[in-house]
Amino acid sequence: MRGLLITLALVSAMLVLAPLATADDGAVTTSTQQRSFREYLFGSRPLGWADLDWELDLYYTNLSLNIPLAGTPIQDLSGMGEPEIYSRLLVNSLVPRFLLLEVAVMPLPLTGVALQEYASGFYRSGELGGGQNLFQWITAGFEEPYAVSLFLGDMVRFSKQGEERLSSNKGYMGYLCSYSNQHIKNNVLIPDDSVEVEWKLKGERSFREEKLAWSFRMGAKMHDHPDIADTFYLGFRRSDLDFTVNPIAFLKNSAFEVRWDISTKTGALLRQEYILGKKFPIKSWGVAFKLDGGMIWEASERYRGSLKDHDASNVTVVLRPNIIF
C-alpha cells in the first residue's frame, strides 16, 4: 500500500510539473511567470501533431494528449448556442475525428485513503456517529484513485478574444474507455481491475467572467473483483458560474449532478447519487468558492462476500469544498 501511494504521489507531481517543460509553438519554454495562474492550472499547448492539455483540481487532476485522426484542426464553435453545438458534435462523432489519451489522478480521494491507512487516529477523529465520517463525506463519490482513458469521437473548441488558451474550453462527444486496477470503498483501496465503457457528451466554456460546464453519459462498468457488482449507469451534470450577477442569486452560480447505477444481472437499482452545488464568486479576486452537497445511496447488493459490511449505513453524505479560478 505504501509503495502504491508513493507511486501515485510521483504521478501527481508529474502532472503538475509537465506543463512547465512544454514549449509554445517552437518557442523557448514558457515559465510560470510568463503565463497566468489559470493557464498554469488549466493549460493547453500545441505540439504540432497533437495538443497537450492539463487540468489541476482537488478532485480530478489530469494530463491528456489530443490527436487529430482526420488531419484537420479542432473547430472553433464559440459563436454557436448549445443546441447547435450538440447537433454538430453528434453528426461528427459518428465517424471519430479525434483520439484522446488521458491519465488522471484524484488527489483528495487519495488523501482520504492515506489518512485511513497511515493516520487512522486522526481519521477516526472525523467520526460523526451513525457510520458517518467527515473525511469520507469530503472524498465520497470517487471509486478509483487514478485511471487511464482512451476517447474516440469529435472535439470542438471555445475561445474568446483576449482570453487564455485553456484546456477546459472544449466540447466532446464520443466513446470513452477507462481502466483502473484499484477500487475505493470507504477510503480503503481494494485491488480490482475495472473497465468502464461509455458514450459521453461533455463540454466547458471557461472565461474570466463566466464558466459553463455540462456532461451527459451512459455506459457500463465491469469489475474483476467477484464481490463488486457490475453495473449499467446513467449520469447528468451541469454547472454555471457568472461573476456579473448577484453572488447570492439562487439559480445562478449553481450546479447539479445525478447518477443511477443498475445491476447488469438483476436490473435492480444499486446506487443513486444526487448532488447540488453553490458557488460564491469574488470578482475582485477572480475566484469563486464552491460547495457541493448531497447524498449517495447504495443497496446492500452493491458489495458481496468479503466486501459486504452489514453495519455500514446505506447512505453517505457528500460534502465537497473547492475553489474555482
Topology:
Layout: H1 2-17, H2 37-41, E1 44-46, E2 51-55, E3 61-68, E4 75-76, H3 82-93, E5 98-105, H4 107-118, H5 120-124, E6 127-129, E7 132-133, H6 134-139, E8 146-157, E9 170-185, E10 188-206, E11 210-223, E12 231-242, E13 254-263, E14 269-282, E15 287-298, E16 315-324
Parallel strand pairs: 4-8
Antiparallel strand pairs: 1-2, 2-3, 3-5, 5-8, 6-7, 8-9, 9-10, 10-11, 11-12, 12-13, 13-14, 14-15, 15-16
First CA to last CA: what distance? 34 Å
> How many strand units?
16
Mean pLDDT: 84
Give a short account of the largest sheet: 14 strands, mixed
**What is the total number of structural domains?**
1
Shape, per Cα inertia axes: globular
Instruction: Output the radius of gyration.
Output: 20 Å
Helix percentage range: 10-25%
Task: Summarize this entry quickly.
Helices cover 17% and strands 46% of the residues. By secondary structure, it is of the alpha+beta class.
Detailed description of the structure:
It contains six helices and 16 strands. It is globular, with a radius of gyration of 20 Å. Strands 1, 2, 3, 4, 5, 8, 9, 10, 11, 12, 13, 14, 15 and 16 form a 14-stranded mixed beta sheet that branches. The protein has a two-stranded antiparallel sheet with strand order 6-7. With 325 residues, it is α+β, with helices and mostly antiparallel strands. Strand 13 and strand 14 form a beta hairpin. The chain has one domain. About 8% of the residues have low confidence.
